[in-house]
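Practice problem: predict the structure.
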Amino acid sequence: MTKDSKKDSKNIKSSFEHIGKLISVSIIVILLFVGGFLIYYFISAKVVAKNSDYIPKFSLYTIISGSMEPAIKVYDLIFDVRVDDFSKIKKGDVITFHSRSPISFEKTVTHRVVDVKIVNDKYEFVTKGDDNPTADSATVREEDVIGKTLFRLPQFGRIQIFLTSKIGWIMFILIPALGIVIYDVIKLLNIFNVSDSAKGIKADLSSEEKALNEENKRIKETIEQIKKRHKVN
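Answer:
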């Protein structure tokens, strides 16, 4: 193998190692993001299940009806933030709330505020789905508001639904995690193999060095014997 061929081979190997590291780091980042999302999602769900009055600071909801189209479509993922000052909810804002309307009683609904009222020194909000012909039959009280919608992620709700399923958990958490473990084990084995190879090379060099020393010793002895013979003569 020529020098250039060895250099090319080394560069290719280095490139593959670099790509492997990038893939490993990318998988770790994705796992951290997905894991953090799932942990927050499940903890929030557990807390809300135990305490119905608790409202998390941030909430994620997948839209499953077309009442807010075209602004918010089915399977869009919306990001809500808890409202602590209800005077900040204005006409035109989109809010998520527990509905009091007979058609959707106690369900979680995301609609747009079309009017703001003050009843007994408390805010009440008239809401309507953008695609609905009329406003909701019941107003939304302060205690019904879950959060104000800040933004939406188009079709990301499909990912949320998939991630919270058993198959999604296996594909996006378990398999990548096992992949990282296997990759690290292979790296460790390679390190041990390199170490063993280095020890073998060192042992071979020591043997060769010992043989050379013995050969040099014999040569010196032979030279000394020749010198002695010349002196005698």
